[in-house]
Design goal:
about 525 residues, alpha/beta, Rossmann fold, 4 domains, seven-stranded mixed β-sheet, about 25% strand, 17 helices
Length: about 525
């Protein structure tokens, strides 16, 4: 992406074997039943070093870091931190030893201030009063030293996504961590916020903080890391200085074969199959307009991309198109029919498929099996449901096995609870459930967030195939590379307004970035 311009690590950062590592992981093995999540993994980390941990979804990256941080216990192997063994430890023990972790999904209390979030859990319950003034002074010094700027009195609910991530990092620094683990730190950040984060990480590394980053975004890995360690099938299959490899080499190391993302070939669009006309939505509590006079058209044989910084109305737009939110004004048309009160079930019956933004919360029922999840959009449909009432379990399982094989969902069997799948395989299951119905319209909301290169290529191929068969696709994504690679037309959202559509061909990330900041005129009332 054009906006990344971080300089490589300076030569004086310790790496290799020239200095004893501050972290040594040796022979770590972890099994969940018959599944070997980690197999005999060894790696090291030095002061001031930024190491990227790469691998496919389910390769064992997060499991390994959860073992290091104390969430899981290894079946075998050893961990040594700062010259001392780390055994049978908890997250509290890890923090005391100087190891912190920022998870992909933030763990902040929205109703508390930044200061309260950071202090939470750092004071004894038996302490007669909270030493907020001391904490405030110390936190301000940490922010000054690290270059982290956040209003510490602001409620977390009022912060941007980028600011929330800074709070998570501050939480770790406040606890004096010397090793910081970041799990998918840029998954929900804008390109500008990624730049800011990388400058910050480089600054902290130059002061001696050692950092491990789990990421699927290879251009970012190349921009920020000193060294890469690649896992595949729970084993280390690659270890290289970042300066010696390129994006294609990394992708091949991760997947085990050459990976190339497909591109959309130009073709004429067909008839209109989905439209919003002058749609306005107001917040139910405050009556504030959150979608303003939206005009949108999706035709068969085309992908319409929706760009925008998170929080500018894309989530509300997706809710309207999913039947979860009824517009206060305007028209919703599907297949030429105006829908007065569209519901998820009605839209599904009329050929609309939904790939939700949050696959864990809205896409699957984690406790249910794979075959049961594959039925969620087929309630009452033949041949699985006899007379629309009686479930044919044998047919349902056979159908599930076919889809699992066709969409390469890697699992033990169709009886496995979906919650045990990796993110990539969970997404492929959702795609299987939706695309197997050959839908006329597909709402794809952040369809590749958190996925590895191989899974991204698979998802893109499936969406392009559906488009070529005649589906109309609305692609909502914060990944500008994805947006520009797949979209026939692009619209931009800012503060609840939508721009006129632009041809996807010829658009650049820089131009889109300007429009994402509000630099378009139509509808901007």
């Amino acid at each position: 992406m054009e906006s990344l311009s971080v300089n490589p690590a300076s030569a004086d950062i310790a790496s290799g074997d020239s200095v004893a590592p501050i972290l040594s992981i040796s022979g770590i093995t972890k099994r969940f039943g018959s599944l070997a999540a980690n197999q005999n993994i060894s790696l090291s980390l030095h002061t001031g070093e930024i190491v990227a941990l790469l691998g496919e979804n389910g390769a064992g990256k997060t499991t390994l870091m959860n073992i290091l941080f104390g969430h899981y216990r290894a079946d075998s192997g050893t961990i040594e931190a700062f010259g001392e063994p780390l055994e049978q430890h908890s997250p509290e023990d890890a923090l005391k030893r100087g190891i912190g972790m920022v998870h992909q999904h933030f763990t902040l209390a929205d109703n508390l201030s930044v200061l309260d979030n950071i202090m939470l859990g750092t004071e004894s319950l038996w302490q007669p009063f909270s030493r907020r003034s001391v904490a405030r002074k110390r936190l301000q010094q940490i922010m000054q030293d690290a270059g982290l700027n956040v209003n510490i009195d602001s409620p977390v609910r009022d912060l941007t996504v980028g600011e929330r991530q800074r709070v998570e990092i501050l939480k770790a620094l406040y606890r004096n961590v010397r090793i910081l683990i970041l799990d998918e730190p840029t998954a929900v950040l804008t390109p500008q916020e990624v730049d800011d984060l990388f400058v910050l990480l480089r600054s902290m590394a130059s002061r001696g903080l050692a950092i491990i980053i789990i990421s699927h975004k290879l251009h970012e890995v190349l921009a920020i890391s000193d060294r890469v360690v690649v896992l595949r099938g729970g084993e280390v299959v690659g270890n290289a200085e970042t300066a010696t490899v390129d994006r294609n080499q990394l992708a091949e190391m991760i997947v085990g074969r050459a990976v190339e993302r497909p591109c959309v070939e130009a073709r004429p669009a067909g008839e209109e199959i989905l439209a919003l006309r002058a749609v306005t939505v107001r917040d139910r509590a405050t009556h504030r307009i959150i979608l303003s006079n939206i005009d949108l058209q999706v035709r068969s044989h085309e992908i319409v991309g929706v760009a925008g910084v998170s929080g500018n109305g894309q989530a509300v737009l997706a809710s309207v198109l999913s039947g979860l939110c009824t517009p206060d004004e305007g028209e919703f048309l599907l297949q030429g029919e105006t829908l007065k009160k569209p519901s998820p079930r009605l839209l599904t019956s009329k050929g609309l498929a939904r790939i939700p933004e949050d696959r864990h919360t809205d896409g699957v029922v984690s406790e249910m099996s794979l075959w049961e999840n594959l039925l969620l959009d087929e309630l009452g449909q033949e041949p699985v449901w006899r007379m629309g009432m009686v479930l044919d379990r044998r047919t349902a399982r056979q159908q599930a096995c076919q889809l699992i094989d066709e969409y390469d969902v890697r699992c033990h069997n169709e009886e496995q609870p979906v919650g045990l799948l990796s993110g990539g395989n969970m997404q492929k299951l959702i795609l299987a459930r939706n695309l197997a119905r050959d839908p006329d319209v597909i709402l794809a909301n952040q369809p590749t967030r958190g996925l590895d290169e191989g899974a991204i290529a698979t998802v893109h191929s499936l969406l392009i195939d559906a488009r070529n068969r005649g589906a109309g696709i609305l692609l909502i994504t914060e990944d500008l590379d994805e947006l520009l690679r797949l979209s026939d037309r692009v619209v931009v959202m800012h503060d609840g307004h939508m721009s006129e559509s632009l041809p996807g061909a010829g658009l650049t990330p820089r131009e889109l970035g300007l429009r994402m900041s509000g630099a378009f005129d139509n509808n901007a009332t």
